[in-house]
Amino acid sequence: MLQINNELRKIMPRNDDLEFFLNELKISIFKRKPDEKIRSATGLVYERLKNIGAYKGALSSHEVPVTAWLDKAIKTAKSGPVGRLAEALEVLTPKLSWQTRSDRHSNDPNWLKSHANAVIVGDMGLEYRTDIRIGVSLLAPNTVYPNHQHPPEEVYIALSDGCWRQNNGEWQSPGPGGLIYNRPNIIHAMKSSNDPLFAIWMLPL
Ligand SMILES: [Fe+2]
Questions:
Q1: In whole angstroms, how large is the CA radius of gyration of the chain?
Q2: What kind of fold does domain 14-204 have according to CATH?
């Protein structure tokens, strides 16, 4: 049965909305003439995307308070330099499952109400697979997503204003459409300003 499923996936196209989003994401990243590390990590993710994973469709969702900021975040992103990407993401958002991270240790008593992530492609994503992960993060205004690290390298594209930091370096504000590269295991964090922070990330696993 597993082999039949794999054969079927080779001839079945990816869900149109997801394919459109993934194309817009790639275009948005390469349009900004990324450095070699971002080109390489993004290239690896898209090489793996040539194999199509199982499409899960709409995911079961539960109430996550920060999603009250989602409409504003999408509306702002749509009017900026990554407008087409934000439009492609907007089509997928009703199907996503937003999750909070209780394992990210924050001093903010509102932490669990003021952030969420949703996987688009990957385990717990619209397309299930374990070789890559592509998702989106949303922070309420004036929220710090605390220091964390992970073995895979990571590329972000910001859809909003907001700040990113590595180790104890200066906070950087790439602006909407800006790219961020986190090398494997580097400690990194992000924080929002007076507006929500909205960003897409990808990791080759
Ligand atoms: Fe990260």
A1: 16
A2: Jelly Rolls (2.60.120)
